[in-house]
Amino acid sequence: MLAVIPVREGVLPLGGLETIAECGGRALLIGSDTSAAADLCADIATEICVIETASFAPGAWASALAPHLASEPRIVLPASPDGRDLAPRIAATLQRSLWAGALSITPHRIELARNGGLVVNDIAPHHSFVATLQPGVRGVEQSAHAATPVSVTTLAFGNGSPSISDAHVLEVLPPDVATMDLSESPRILGGGAGLRSAEAFAQLASVASHLEASTGATRVITDRGWIGHERQIGTTGVVVDPKLYIAFGISGAVQHTSGLGQPAHIISVNLDPHCPMMQLADLAIVSDANDVVAQLLIKLDANV
């Protein structure tokens, strides 16, 4: 399998490393400043091809990539925004099936999340296909090949057919942390049963806004109607993979923690020093989450 990773200014998309790991370390990076992006893959990649080109143009890219991908029977892209744009165009250009939203991918078996993640379908794909891998599900472990120098090849890149109708990027806007998909959020403040009122949870959302973080919750909170179910983190909600996760009043039931991915840093605020979330945390604060949220909001409001 070959991972095709769209790159913007040397930055890998969400789920890029996971996709490379799923493909056994084989990757084709396409976009701008791909050499810098290749360095970020060194711990998990075994073979990298880089293609340096202009700004994102999925139609032109799919057309120009076709000669390079024709001999690759199984192509996997991350289900990031750019990956979801590029994958169907590659599948159409190569006249292959597209399996979107996969939880795991092997040459002979694909698990697909359907009905908002409530149903998992097992698919036996044809010999050749294109698929997208959901970010935050697989995780990334350092490859046994990491000590071996990675083979990096630079490929020539044409402009595709001039007759192709393509998307034109007018402006790239930063995401609104209050509404962005939790699976793509780098910083998340989560609230659980330890928050005693809707007012306390509203204060948590205000703290998150000050910190440019998204707000998430456990099922208890969404069932109370204090926030929409699309902000629920866990096996029956959204699987996330933030760099920073701060848990307020969350005990850490397995249904919740199994949806956390592999955050680089976890902070937990809880009255129970022995609950699972406190054991997972890099920094555990034994305190009432309601009081901590209220005091944080006062301090942050004072600095505005």
Question: What's this entry about, in short?
Answer:
This protein has 304 residues and is α/β, with parallel strands linked by helices. It has helices spanning 16-22, 34-40, 58-69, 81-94, 198-210, 219-224, 254-257, 276-280, 289-302, and strands spanning 2-7, 26-31, 47-52, 74-78, 97-106, 109-114, 119-123, 129-133, 151-154, 187-191, 214-217, 244-248, 265-270, 283-286. The chain folds into two domains: 2-154, 3-Layer(aba) Sandwich (Rossmann fold), CATH 3.40.50.620; 182-302, Rossmann fold.
Strand and helix map with partners:
Blueprint: E1 2-7, H1 16-22, E2 26-31, H2 34-40, E3 47-52, H3 58-69, E4 74-78, H4 81-94, E5 97-106, E6 109-114, E7 119-123, E8 129-133, E9 151-154, E10 187-191, H5 198-210, E11 214-217, H6 219-224, E12 244-248, H7 254-257, E13 265-270, H8 276-280, E14 283-286, H9 289-302
Parallel strand pairs: 1-2, 1-4, 2-3, 3-9, 4-8, 5-8, 10-11, 10-12, 12-13, 13-14
Antiparallel strand pairs: 5-6, 6-7
Verbal overview:
The mean pLDDT is 88. This protein is elongated. The chain has 2 domains: 2-154, HUPs (Rossmann fold, 3-Layer(aba) Sandwich); 182-302, 3-Layer(aba) Sandwich (Rossmann fold), CATH 3.40.50. The longest helix is centred in the first third of the chain and has 14 residues, at 81-94. The chain has helices at 16-22, 34-40, 58-69, 81-94, 198-210, 219-224, 254-257, 276-280, 289-302; strands at residues 2-7, 26-31, 47-52, 74-78, 97-106, 109-114, 119-123, 129-133, 151-154, 187-191, 214-217, 244-248, 265-270, 283-286. The strands form 2 sheets. It has a 9-stranded mixed sheet with strand order 7-6-5-8-4-1-2-3-9, with helices on both faces. By secondary structure, it is α/β, with parallel strands linked by helices.
